[in-house]
Amino acid sequence: MRAVAGSLHGLVGLAPIAGLVLAWQVLLTAGWVPSALLPSPGAVLARTVASLGDPAFLGHLASTLYRLAAGFAIALAIVFALGLAGATSRIADAALRPVIRVLAPIPKIALYPALILSLGFDDAPKIILVAADALFPILLATYGGAGAVEQKLLWSARAAGTSRAGTILKVVLPATLPSILTGSRIALVVACIVVFLAEMITSTDGLGYLLVRSGRAFQTVDMFVPLLAISAVGLALDGALAAARRVLLRGFPEEE
Amino acid sequence: MSRAASRTGAALRPGLPPFLACLALLLAWQIAARFLAVGGVPDALSTFRELPAIIGDREALGEIAASLRRMGAGFGLALLFSVPLGLLMGRSRLVSALVNPLLMVGYPVPKAALMPLIMLWLGVGDAAKILVIVLGVSLPIIYHSRQGARAVEEKLLWSAAAMGMSGPARLARIVLPAALPEILVGCRTGIVLALITMITSEMIARQTGAGNILFNALDMAQYETVYAMILVVSALGIALDVLFERLRSGLTGWAEPIPSPAIAPA
């Protein structure tokens, strides 16, 4: 019964999306918008499907994914190191918090020109930009989560003979995991967006470059393809992380 | 005595550590640039010497002001429809079920990347840039408004309904104030996003603005200007954050502080 209601709700949600696509098509068939400016949804879909069989397109997709993965991995490694430092040493914690507080609201994309000047036009500045942008959502969430660990749990663990390092590993880390995963989910979407923008600014490959190239050639159909692709990548990775979360956090209350 | 000491300590605390952190970061930059000599990184002092050339320049200041104006306009427009929509989604299951999938699909779309397409439709002027900022800002505000509206105490709403308050009035006079702390969390994320989208949109449609100055300096390899502009943009980001924090504690000083969530996407 509940499942039926749930799927009904799901169907209701499809209505606006379908309506949007329909309105898009109506705009075109009524001739209010020239198809040079707005290609038909069918044409966009057909081109996207055709692109998936095109090795050149897949190559661009692969380089975007590579930058995404490398940047995200670097961000995770830094979070791990800083989180560990903050958890083990009070001085490190007191020093790190204000630095993070200052750096977090800076729009990282503004640093991109500096990265290009120092590191050239290759993968390196893009990967570092992705890492810088993905870092703070995870870091802030991790700090928030670690700060909320019940003090009594720590005392109990220590009283029961667990070493300091053991408490971090066995109490703090599992208690912080939900926050880390929530932060990672936000960071993943940020990373998708930033890698795309970086590729739009300076690049010779990647999905963002494809968009700029099609834009210069005034090929509107081709402009939609990389946009759809990066959104699909974002949705797929988000879904994968949500699935990982369900496995890792069995028994925790589900987040919305 | 010790109480007074701890009180002054608490009074000093909010501003001082971030300020010290700023100094430490600048110092680290200066030392790194001097001794590591990474290719093309000017040291902090010469970057600061470059600042008057931007801040003292009428044209540059005008461009930065134009950027801020677009950002304000985009943010304001987004607020106008995002908050009511979010509150409505929080209170009505049907609206939530109707709109949520659309928002979920839109969530990972890089909004600033829509700029080339929107430019085709609206031209390179302010309209396209403001629209992109509106798109970038609205999602977190909608999301947090919804979360806030969900957590409103039911009894308050029942009492209001029993006293004859209409649906829209309940939304405006009970749900809105009760959800305000959470809405402001969304606004804070939104400000960061607005700044990012502003820079990116100006970088794609190079005409005016802070992003334009930044990326033109990059094209001409004016290292000092690039770094000085980064300082200006960073200062803007931090200043907006601090200002907003002030506004928030003024508006919702009564509420338990909500731990600031992670900075969300562009």
Would you write up a description of this structure?
- Chain A contains 10 helices and no strands.
- In chain A, 38% of the residues are buried.
- Chain A is globular.
- Chain A is an all-alpha fold and 256 residues long.
- Chain A has 2 domains: 35 residues; 210 residues, MetI-like (MetI-like fold), CATH 1.10.3720.
- Chain B has 266 residues and is mainly α.
- Chain B has one domain: MetI-like (MetI-like fold, Orthogonal Bundle), CATH 1.10.3720.
- In chain B, 79% of the residues lie in helices and 0% in strands.
- Chain B contains 11 helices and no strands.
- In chain B, helix 4 packs across helix 5, helix 8 crosses helix 9 and helix 9 runs parallel beside helix 10.
- The longest helix of chain B has 38 residues.
- Chain B is globular and about 70 Å long.
- The N and C termini of chain B lie far apart (49 Å).
- The N terminus and C terminus of chain B are likely disordered.
- Chains A and B meet through helix 1, helix 4, helix 5, helix 6 and helix 8 of A and helix 2, helix 5, helix 6, helix 9 and helix 10 of B.
Write the topology of this structure.
The complex is a heterodimer of chains A (256) and B (266).
Chain A: H1 2-29, H2 41-52, H3 55-88, H4 90-103, H5 112-119, H6 123-147, H7 151-159, H8 164-201, H9 207-216, H10 220-248
Helix pairs in contact in A: 2-10, 3-4, 3-6, 3-8, 3-9, 5-6, 6-8, 7-8, 8-9, 8-10, 9-10
Chain B: H1 2-12, H2 16-35, H3 44-55, H4 58-91, H5 93-106, H6 115-122, H7 126-150, H8 154-162, H9 167-204, H10 210-219, H11 223-251
Helix pairs in contact in B: 3-11, 4-5, 4-7, 4-9, 6-7, 7-9, 8-9, 9-10, 9-11, 10-11
